[in-house]
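User: If you would, consider this record:
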Amino acid sequence: SHITFNDNGHIIDALEKKPLGVFCLLDSECMMPRATDESFQSKIFSNHKDSKVVYKESRFASTTFAVAHYAGEVVYNVISFLEKNTDKLHADITTLMKLSSNKLAKELFTNPKYDGAGDAAPAAGGGGGGYAPGRAPGRTSAARTSGSAGKPSGGNKSTVGMAFRNQLDVLVADLNKTNPRYIRCMKPNA
């Protein structure tokens, strides 16, 4: 029999749809040279002023916004959103890992298959690509330019959000290739 479920398309659109979804606004704000967490929050409110999904959580000045998910309201604080979304490895660490004698470490940093941005791997010393565990924090102007020893890499301007969405797209494509079967629980958890 057919399984019914709540359609969360409007929530996904508010968060991800180009060009004004929250994730798209975050990525575009990360590319701006003088962007701040407050300017990101301002763009959210100006682009979602009539939204019932993304809205200002309080009528008082704050650094938060709320999202009405299917399970209820979730409040997010914008402090450090931009820094965390541009989280890059230092170029010297990336180069060191590419030259590692450990096969797994070398594979993760040289094979474009593991680059979160979905692009070809950058040349040695040119940048770390997408997101990988252990990224060094730091939202500086150096984080957006081609890396040199001791400075954050980021020549391809990939963000954590972009890498996440690319990985999610690959997962969805893999799931769409399958023929899912669902088993209905006779006695649901209560």
About this structure: DSSP finds seven helices and three strands in the chain.
